[in-house]
């Protein structure tokens, strides 16, 4: 008798190592097989619920109209409203947004937050756009999404090249269409407009909490642990700062143009101040310059890729020399690289757990907006630590129970939760 799940898996079989949706799908398939996922549930969970493509006319400062292409993919609603960021970049693709929306579904499920996954993106180069052009782009994009987003439907958040200001524009545009203020329509807002204390630092802080748990497995202490961080933005920069503050020896960090390395450890506050003042790490005198490629291959205890996708592939995985890989970025490691890292005995904290601090505190922000009462920052951080540590322990126990790598265990944990809720609700067909 034919197995429809096996047929679907052959149809979706990955052919491009660096295609983010195929990478997500390959990992989903492995976890689904190990779980013995019902073929009907597999068919439903394997694909997004909705893919929206919009064309966004924007009057530029020159007076002419330019039309931008935008996306919003809503992957799953089984556990609650969809949740996910919006990115502005010239290389945004639908496959990337689809993969990120699915990762958001699994990420929310891993940390047991009652959201599904979504993601949005606009093809543009924000560096070359004025503040006014970005505002007009954001407001028109929001208007195009108006019938698809909302506190009970889909809650956007900041992502690559978007920020608190972007979220304020989205909130205001949505509220103008509704006729009253709806601050729960987005998260990652300014504090004064209903944002949560601790939200900006949450993703980097979540990486710290996961690293803290992982180093215990190697009988290390922060003072005896060297850390290399790729990226110096909202995840890498804040993560490095927080790790430095608790005693980790951060030996290398990078920005988009390259990195710096000092085997004795970097003064991270000084490095970040230099970066803010100069907009680059080039020329920093207390360290040697390295490329982003070289930085990934530095020997260390903890390697934290916190920049972008496809940084560790089959081409360089055999040269990775760390004990712990903490994936602060989304999809920094390809499926082909996974096997190489596993064979090398590297302990991977997968992205759908390691960088889930952001969506966890986004959930806290949404809860606070809905009830109109806001927590102190120490309360937010304590609740975040409880969520991250509990999820790390669950994932680790599941990996040992099924004798699988930690990434597969994370997918199994997430898929099992989403599948259970989907089965309980039933398929409306």
Shape category: globular
Strand order of the largest sheet: 9-8-7-6-10-11-12
Count of DSSP strands: 12
> What is the H/E string?
HHHEEEHEHEHHEHEEHEHEEHEHHHH
CATH class of the domain at 202-354: Alpha Beta
CATH topology of the domain at 202-354: Rossmann fold
Name the beta content range.
15-25%
Poorly predicted segments:
1-14
- How would you classify the quaternary structure? single chain
Share of residues in helices: 40-55%
User: End-to-end distance, in Å?
Assistant: 24 Å
- How many helices? The count is 15
CATH evolutionary superfamily of the domain at 202-354 = NAD(P)-binding Rossmann-like Domain
Largest sheet: 7 strands, mixed
CATH architecture of the domain at 202-354: 3-Layer(aba) Sandwich
Helix/sheet category = alpha/beta
Radius of gyration of CA atoms, rounded to a whole number: 21 Å
Mean pLDDT: 94
Please summarize what this structure is:
This protein has 429 residues and is of the alpha/beta class. Helices cover 45% and strands 16% of the residues. It contains 15 helices and twelve strands.
Structural commentary:
The chain is of the alpha/beta class and 429 residues long. Among the domains are: 50-186, 3-Layer(aba) Sandwich (Rossmann fold), CATH 3.40.50; 202-354, NAD(P)-binding Rossmann-like Domain (Rossmann fold, 3-Layer(aba) Sandwich), CATH 3.40.50.720. 45% of the residues lie in helices and 16% in strands. It is built from 15 helices and 12 strands. The strands form 2 sheets. The chain has a 7-stranded mixed sheet. It has a 5-stranded mixed sheet with strand order 1-2-4-3-5. Strand 1 (50-59) and strand 2 form a beta hairpin. Helix 13 (357-371) crosses helix 14 and helix 14 (377-402) crosses helix 15. The longest helix has 26 residues, at 377-402. The chain starts with a helix and ends with a helix.
